[in-house]
Amino acid sequence: MAKRVGMEVAIAVAEAVGMCNVDVAAVYPITPQSHIAEHLSDIVADGRTDTEYVTVESEHSAISVVIGASGTGARTYTATSSQGLMLMHEILPIVSAMRLPICMAVANRAVSGPLNILNDHSDIMPQRDAGWIVMFTENGQEAIDLSIQSFKIAEDPEVMLPVAVNIDGFQLTHMVEPVEFPDQKAVSRFIPARKPYAMLHPDTPVTMGAFAMSDIYHEMMMVKDEVLKNSKKTILKVWDEWAKTFGRRYKPVETYRADDAEVLLVTMGSMGETAEVAIDELRKKKVSVGLVKIRLWRPFPFDEFRHVVRKAKLLIVTDRAVSFGGPGGPVHAEIKAALYHDKHRPAVHDYIIGLGGRDVRVSDFVTMVERAIKDRRKSAVKDYEFYGVRE
Amino acid sequence: MVEIRWHGRGGQGAVTSVEMLALAAIEEGKYAQGFPSFGPERRGAPVAAFTRINDKQIKVRSGIYHPDVVIVLDPGLIGLVNVTDGLKPKGTLIVNTPKSPEQLRKELNYRGNIATVDATKIAKEELNVPITNTTMLGAVVRAAAPVKLKSLEVPLKERFGKLAPRNINALKRAYNELKISKAVK
Question: Which of B12, B24, B59 is nearest to B168 (CA)?
C-alpha cells in the first residue's frame, strides 16, 4: 500500500528516480534543480541504489557522460535547468538522433539575461525541436509518476528516444506537499531491465552517431520525426498500464469543466491547478468557461487537442515563454497551427504570463478570461499580449 | 484554509519551521504546502516563508498575500519589515519578543489577535542557541491551532534525531508561556 508522506518535490523526484534501478547518472547542480542533484547523490552514497553517479564539471559534460553510458546499454538519468539546459542544447539533438533513451528532469527556470533564477518555460522552449519527448507536470505527485514512467517510455523498443520531464522551478521543486510513493516491487515490475537494440562493447564493435552526408541525412531526419510522432502510441499504452497498476490516469491533454464550455483557458505546467480555482470562480458567475491542460508537448497531441476544443468559440492560451519577433508564445503558435485546417476555428487569444517568476494569481486568470471575452465581443481579439505589465 | 507567513532572517530556520508545520498537517491527513520566498537567500537578511493548510486538496500555487497568521522569529525585524502587511484584520500576529502583546499593539497599531513569547530566552535555556524556529512552533499551535502539538513531534524527531526532545521541550514551553491579546472590536 502506497504511503502518503509530506516531502519537498525535488527530493521526491530524486527518491522516485532512486527507485528506477538507474545504472548511470550525471547531474550538475543548478538552481532550482539542485535538490534533485544533491538528494540523488545522497541516495547513491547511502547505498540505496547501485547507480554510478558521475560528478562532472558542466551540464555539457553531464549529458555527454550519459550519452556514452546509454550507448553501452545502461539506464541513464540527468537533470538540469535554465542555463544548464542551454549548455546541453548542442548535444540534445544528438541524443535523439542516436536513439538513446536518456531520461532528464528539467526544473524550469527563466534564461539569462538578465540573470533570473525563477520559473518560466524559456529554458525548455528553445529545445522544442531537439527530437525529445517533452512532458509537463502540475504537482509533486505527477513529478514522481512521470519521472518513473519516463524510463519505460524512453526504453520501449518502439520508441528509443530521450524524455524530458518538466517540473516548474520553485513553484514545484521547492514545495513541501503530500505525495504518495508507489511500492518498490511494483515499480521494478513496471520498468524491467533495459533491453538495448545495440550496445557499445569492445567484443562486438559498432558505430553510433556516424557521419551522414546529403545522401542519407535527409531521410534520417524524416525517420526521427516519424519515430517521435509514433511514440505517442507507446506513451498512451504506458499511461494506461500506469492507471491499471497505480490508479492515476494521465492523458496527453487534460480538461477541467470543459465539456460544455464556450470559452477554454489553456495552460501547461504548474499553473493548471491555480487556473482550476479561477474556473470555479468564473463558473459561479455563470461564465461558460473550462480549462485545457497540455501535458504532452512533444510529440504534440494534435488529435486529442482538436477533440477537446471542438465546441469552443474562444481559446485563451497562456504562454510562459516568448518567441521574440514571432507570433507570440510558442504554445499559442502550435495551437493555431493545429486548428488551421479545421472548418470550425475558434478565436485564439494569447497571454504571455509569469515570466521570470512573476506570480500569477487566481484573480489574474479571472481577469484574463473576462478581458478576452470582452475583446472578442468587440471583435478585438489580440494575437498576443504581455499580461500584467507594470506601467 | 489557513495561510501563514513567517518572517525571519536567513539562517534562523524559517524554512525548517514551514516544513515541520506542513509535515505535521500532512501527518494528520490534511493537505499542506510549505515553501520559501522564492529566490536567493543571504544569511542574516530578512526572509519570509509560507505555509498553507487545508482539509481539502490545495490547488492554488501562487504566493500568499493576505495571511491569516503571521509569525515573527526575530524581534529586530519589527520596524524593518512591515510584518502586518496584508495580514487579515481579524488575523493573528505571533512575535518572539519579551514585550507584552498590548505593548506591541500600540507600536504596530494592529487590531487583530496578538501573541508574544520570549522565544529567544527559551531557546537559549533549552537549546543553548538563540535559534527560535522550533520554539515558535509551540506558540503557533497555541495561538492559531493549525495542527495538534503531538503531530509536530513526528517530523521533529525525524529531522532532529537526538536533539528532538530538547526542541519539543522548547516548543512546549513556548506553548505554555505565550501571552495572548484578543482582537479589539
Answer: B24
